[in-house]
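Quick one - inputs below.
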Amino acid sequence: MKPLRVLYCHCTYANVVPKATKDEVLKQLTESDIPFDAVPDLCEMSAKKDPCLAELAADANLKIAACYPRAVKWLFHAVGVKLPDTAEVLNMRTDTADAVVAKLLEPPATP
Amino acid sequence: MSIPLPLPLSAPPPASAAAFRVAVYEGTGADPFPPGGRTALVTALLAKGLTVSVVRPGGSAGNIIAGTLLVLGHFTDEQPDHATTEGGVNVYFRNVAGKSADEGVELAVQVRAAASIPEPPKWKPWFPVIDYDRCTNCMQCLSFCLFDVYGVNEGKIQVQNNNKCKTDCPACSRVCPEVAILFPKYRHGPINGDVVSADDVRRESMKVDISSLLGGDIYAALRDRNAKFKSRFSKERDADKALEERQKCLVKLGEKLDIPPEVFASLPSPDEIQRKAAEANAKAQAALAVNREAQTSATENS
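Output:
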């Protein structure tokens, strides 16, 4: 089974993701035993065309904890990076922290 | 003696060397962080605008192929302060055993400064993102925006100057007939990226109909209104009334398109607005003409 790659967005520069949700997701991630990448703000990285985005998206077994999947997809596209079709985006604006973390820690569906 | 951290070696940096990453490292040659210590450090680093990779026992930071990497860990052996990998990644090591999260962040800030990497700007990242699954390249956003945010490349609409966008102003997305412009940090859907419903599309189409009732050109409508206003002003010579009328008009437009008052305050003079609107419209028309021509020639060739 391919290893899971998790990317967490802290949405540092705006208050659109409930603070309690993002803090709890981050806490549970750091207390789990999985490696992950955490970025301060995907919008900011997309705006400054941060080269890290290409490297972060280069994994088929990618799960992203951020906001609306449509927004995340086109934020990556704005820097010329296509998210893999298998990438899963979890929405911390609408879902509970427990639901997001449960999905994040689920093993990838593909063998 | 340095421990053999499994760090990037071969791949060349693909882009900006300014990329900066912090690895919270518990891999080979390092002890795990104490309970709570990892969470506190990662949270504090993110709050400072730093990108973090959490590397667990047995893991590596080998996927990091560009820029500068700071490795923070409870190292069991002495590490060099600074090394450069064969792939050109600048790697700094700092031992944070016994240090608080704030002290760890301070080390990261010092390394970032030493590596001449600029601090992230204190800017709310507010700019339009185009959903090309929905965009029909109609160029309405290009002809609407007065701040040169949009441009055209090979006949395709693009966001070319996202730093010129006015914070919290989603007006271009409100005039997009296809609901194809997102502002991920906007409060409401579907502009924030939420799923677009049939009702959303219908509502946007109605706005376009209203726009065509105004003559299809919002700036022309405003110009006419301005002319009428000037004529009335010259007759009535009532400055207070004129000011009140103008404010009412701006408040209405602001409410309709959710434009913050600061954006109105930053608008150029009316003449400059007309000039910029004409320029933007000309760009849009030129792009549309080129696209029509390309489409015609493609049809003829097939």
